[in-house]
Amino acid sequence: MNKKVLMVLTLVLAFTTPVMNGNMALAGNPDNAKGARKFSIEELQYRTFRYFWEQADSVSGLIPDRAPTKSFSSIAATGFGLTSYIVGVQSNYITREQAVARVLKTLNFLAKLPQSADQTGTAGYKGFYYHFLDMRSGLRYKDVELSSVDTGLLMAGILSCLSFFDMNNESETAIRKLSEYLYRRVEWDWMITKSGKMSMGWDPRNGFSDATWDGYNEAMVMLIMAIGSPTHPINASAWETWCKTYKWEKFQGQEMVNFGPLFGHQYSQMYIDFKGIQDPYMKGKGIDYFENSRRATIAQQAYCRENPGKWEGYSDKTWGLTACDGPGHFETLRKGKKVVFEGYNARGVAADYIVDDGTLAPTAAGGSIPFVPGICIPALQNMYIVYGNKLYGTYGFKDSFNPSYREGLENNLGWFDVNYLGIDQGPIVIQIENNKTALVWHTMRKNPYIVQGLKLAGFTGGWIDAK
Fold first, then answer.
1. Considering only CA atoms, which of 72, 203, 59 is closest in space to residue 141?
2. Where are the domains of the chain?
3. pLDDT tens digits for 268-315?
4. Which residue would you say has higher pLDDT here, 306 or 15?
5. Which fold has domain 3-466?
6. Cα–Cα distance between 288 and 272 in angstroms, integer?
7. What phi and psi values does residue 98 have, to the nearest 5 degrees?
8. Are 199 and 214 spatial neighbours (Cβ–Cβ below 8 Å)?
């Protein structure tokens, strides 16, 4: 059989026959709004993986910010996509050869994109990339900023490929060389402000953003990579500076470093295994960052069970506040009180942060599965059963829903997003795998730049002491 024909046939079979070593077949959407079919975490992971595999641009390999609505590419979602391909290999969704081909296409495209200080005709500068890129050309989308954290998440995905594709053949050697090139050329030190903190971004018209990355949030993995860079490192003291802005308080009975939206507890821990390792700050508190995220997840479930806003649908099995889409900017009266529903927003709750308009996102529970599987998996199952195909479709869970928003809607279940978002799909597929096999965590333990960054930042204990 012709090799190209065989490859096409393999791809077709990969998405039409049972996978997961024959234990799971992809079925249709739930039979009705009440989700008559049994929930399967394996099927959820497979469907979510397909978002990255099927929605990647055929030429650039870039991942869209959202689908099915036509959109630009998110560089953070592209990083999550690169990592999802190694999950696909581990889970037998695709072959290693298929993953290699997709990763090579994406890395080659990223490496060839123009970098300059020009306002147009470029994809980035100083090794950083613009937050959003045109899906096909790869050039800067409108006037978006050069994003430090989104570049960091892209690089996390690239480093996961660097460490996973370790075979001594031409293709995997090329992946490693491209990954090294892309990571090493990022001038992290250029993005550091006089305060010793990293700027959130830069644009050619206004220069550096006044906003800086203060702990604690999703930027942990970015700082670790910046400290561990062999070419453009930032001073290791940046980690101590980062920790000085932590907010250690009790919320919903949990003492922890607070951050409202759950994505801030998830993104870095998709890549770095913080179990059993501590920096000086966490050593002083007697816990590690994994435990901190466990507490944050439990606290959020407790908040939704308590439901101080009296939103529809909230319970100990229907919860999840994080950055996500919403029904739109709309002000109305609800039970005699003024209520403002938001569009895309960083929803979340903490001791110093309450942003809650009744909009829930399945990725909040999905991305926290390794921290507290006993409450996260039942939450996903319950959302699947209660809301069925209004919430669950081709690529798993739609981004978000709001049972309290009924304006102009004919159904009595509320508002449901039509889109899947790449940065919310990534935590689901990656964290399900970390919970099952610790694949990404173990892969990144082998990465010399992650290890170096952690050691320089002062992390000790557990697996890091064995390096």
1. 72
2. 3-466
3. 999 999 999 999 999 999 999 999 999 999 999 999 999 999 999 999
4. 306
5. Glycosyltransferase (1.50.10)
6. 12
7. -65, -40
8. no
